[in-house]
# Entry
Amino acid sequence: MADTSDSSGLSGSWLPTRFNAVHYGPNSVSRHLLSSLPAPTSRAFIITTSSLATKTPLIRTVESLLTSKHHVATFSSIRQHAPVAQLDEATDLVRKDLSIDTIISVGGGSPIDSAKVISYRLHEKTGKFLFHITIPTTLSAAECTFGAGYTSADGQKTGVAAPDLTPNMIIYDAKFALETPEQLWLSTGIRALDHAVESQYHPKLPEAPTKKIAMTAIADLFKFLPRYKKNPKDESVITQLQLAAFDSLFGVGRALAGGLGLSHTMGYALGSPYGIPHGITSCLTLAGVVRLKAKDPTQAAWIARIPFWIGLEGSGNDQEDGLKVGDAIEKLVEDLGLTTRLGKDHGVGEDQVPVIAKLATKAESGELFEEVASIVRSKL
# Structure
């Protein structure tokens, strides 16, 4: 782990996860899906959402490429935040067919995390993990981690983690991303920005390669998200954003199984309990958390490295520059048309502020509790 007693971060260790391969570019699915299967006789179970299965041609395309030789079944009932009831149903289907050795997730964080949870449960019963091929259609970057979150029966976010849950193959295909609604794509881009920014001040993440690579993700997200907003059909820009999402999180490696920082923790408190997508939670929380972190000299020193990468001139004062970064994130969210209010848009009232602050801080009072409550209140 990194020694981050100062902002140089020059003492540390990187513990990578393992990917067999990462493929990217338009038509990557048609070029690489079959060769990504672990064996000539592999049998695959597809997990996705109803909207992708019924409103786009993507799942039919994957099924057609696999043919009946490799395709066993498709489960398309995964919903936002991966409710446990659907996970139970999908897990039972996989357990009943011993020929299945591969799971293919198509979609955003919910199908990808669901595939990991199913594999985890299978491993508990059989001692073997499923080979996981993922085809992401958002920028949430769930494909880059070995952790998986889902929603328990009481509506709270929970999860599992194991190094072998990292997907074996990632296929980024701009053609597939063309089917993603613009707001979903852009908001999950802010989620990727959340990953990259919070990695900068996380005390357990090393300078190389984690923070350095995440910094390039910050630069690319600030550059290419506005370009996508102007032309959502530009496949080159889409691919650049897919790679930026990858860079935002893969460098974390095995250092962490859970959230990266306070913005993520607040996102969990807002997401499952109130039905808010995690891309939108990052739009609500990241700028405020960065401004809060900028008050602390140690945290500010890390954040103050960011302005150079997003076209801002540094002042030489870490705290001032940290506040600039928070303002720049707020402006990016606004420019992308992602500004949202907890009250008007999501039905979250003033009475929920202490509930959210408690979930995020695991406390009922104190300085951090009040700071988080203030950020939440500012977004009502």
